[in-house]
């Protein structure tokens, strides 16, 4: 039905809803006979078709039908159920129902709507068969089509026209309050009908194809739609449905792919063709095809990006790969399937004997025994490809094919003992495989059985193995049969002769399987299994050497790599390699340092070699790592940048090891963290840095907080204890203790203990022993108490964290501008507490800095003492070298002087920054506030009875103080003649009752009282400057 006809009917039906009689075919005089009335009802019950439409409309205009209206409603509903899905029949049904509506108005339409809506309530019973479910879907599809047409022409418009809501289906009774368009409610219900099985997909696709105008804006449908917001609602509904279809299609694709993989794995494990996983796969494929088709249709209709649902072959499962568009591309030698073009033609270019076979089938004459004997004699003497191809043609042209000849062929190939002819015999089989598959199947079974018998016995049948290999090259054996044999051999390498069998197979098939696209993914898995098997500690060295040979057979080294010459090291480079990596334990550290200082540090090759040596502790014996760290720490005094680069590189390697998490580098990572700990022991890094590294190792892969701090994840599985081993190694080798470490280490130990409890229990014995030794060490030193369970550890950890967070850092006794007068007002106390809080963290950092500086000075003193001893020894033996050392020491001192100059420059910049306008303004405001507090305090004491007192204090001037220096320094003046001692101005306060008087006194500086005040002021100033210098030096460093 086109839009113009719908618009015409819609106008008539809208007038009929108002009670107007608009049926144009109605006669003036209606026939009320029972025969005509019952005849109409019978015709209506049979169904409405294109052919019966005219007669029904004619009777509708001539027959009264008023007394039979209730029966007509039921019959019309039954007739609509018999309407076919053809567009012409649906259009005819719409015209007839519209005619009934135009004659009887709401009396007919309301009852029919109530009955017809119940056909959309699908059964909730999931036990119905697939056949019944498909029938229900087809009926729903037809009913939806009929209802949509009646909705568009204005017959079925709204639930408001239904007299009783009790007769409606349950899904519509729930939605009466929402006032949704009736068509939208029905579609929402239908599209969920057995969605996971894909039954609603056909309904959705047919609706979108049939009524695209309901999803487009500004068309003729806007004129006859009852609900104006229907289009937006339908677009939203179908977009959500499309997204659900996408998700389901992707899930089914993944599941079907997984089932195929599992099926192939099962066949490889058993070596037999099985139906495991195929039943489930065959049930999923039809569903996937339904979702795939509707997904592509809806994606194209709504202009959405569909997921990747192409039936591309999964190359990981060894299926065919699309050939490259570059036809003349030549693969590298190590990736060639065949040795040369001649070998490729031998296995891939087979003679076409279709015509000869067809002629042989038409000629049914029997061959003589003499011809058969001659054929087998020639077969035994065949030596080349051409000879075997001629025999393949002769076999059919001479009509030799019969049951007896085939049995004799099998017997001939089985009993043949000439291994050199196996290749051409396999070519004979491959050429004729299309014409006697039973013979091929029988021979493959023989080969398979013979190969299986060798897997668990001490016998070797080399001819059987070679025949198996050649049949593989001609693609005559299934994939599962090939890799079942290889997998079984790899798993059971301890069985006698299995390594020899696998060697024969790889000699003939290794390069072919790893480079043939159809077999490459499977072969790569087998090689991975072989490499994993090689790590088995129970295998002896001979077996591991044979496994290395197998890997070489599959991955032969390229000629370029064989011919490549290794880079030769300079004699000096070789010397340092041997000195540090082999002979380090035989020399004292000072002697090694002496030799290293003589290296050509300006030569990049030498420095690169030394850098490589110092950043690879795994290349040394594990016992020598501490010696290497000591040498590096002694070298710091002479080559600071080099040592810093080495330490930075070591940090990078530790972090990279956590990110890569390669099991094969486990020993390297252990050596790296041991090396880092030894570097700390020799004072090259601070304790905070070492703790940060240990925290980083422990928390890598965890981003949770609280109870989810160490939740299981893919990076750090609960059964992976390697990070525990790393941290235990660092703690066990920790020897240098500082106040910072003693303060922060207990919290880390508690975190570490909690982390160990989050691992899968019980821990391995080796890990338990290491943890017990670690915690025992710190239990003896710091009184660390271990926990017995995760709950106890968590309780102790929480308690420690709360305790540390509640403890305030000790405040420094030093405060800026110590006043001689005590101020007791509450405002001043609050201000003091705020100032203490502000500087609390800074003073704590200063204390740590002083401690670390003292430790560094102690370490430098020890180093200088060692250097002094070394110099004493060298004076006795090497005078010339001592002179060279003095030159180097002078240059080193020059560097230190430059460094002091640079620090002074940075400090001057800092002082200049502190004296900018903003800082001066803040100081002036602070001074005003302090004076105000002092005055308030003095005013509060006016009513107190005090003894007359004369209080002298240093006069700071009557003007406002503009700098800290003016606050801390009293004003002094010289005598008029300039020869006497300088005088210091003091303000003398005289207070009697409420009256306070002051006058200025100038006292000579040589008075004990004045000199004491000046000395105290100078001492405080000196201490403040010293603290500032330490803080600035630490900050800029």
UniProtKB/TrEMBL annotation:
This is ZYBA0S03-02124g1_1. Residues 824-889 have a biased composition (Acidic residues). InterPro entries: ARM-type_fold (IPR016024), MIF4G-like_typ-3 (IPR003890), Nmd2/UPF2 (IPR039762), Upf2/Nmd2_C (IPR007193). GO terms for molecular function: RNA binding. It is found in: Cytoplasm. GO terms for cellular component: cytoplasm; exon-exon junction complex. Residues 806-900, 960-983 are annotated as: Disordered. Keywords: Cytoplasm. Residues 806-821, 960-978 have a biased composition (Polar residues). Residues 890-900 have a biased composition (Basic and acidic residues). Coiled coil: none annotated. GO terms for biological process: nuclear-transcribed mRNA catabolic process, nonsense-mediated decay. It comes from the Eukaryota. The keyword Cytoplasm applies. Residues 34-256, 369-557, 574-781 form the MIF4G domain. Pfam families: MIF4G, Upf2.
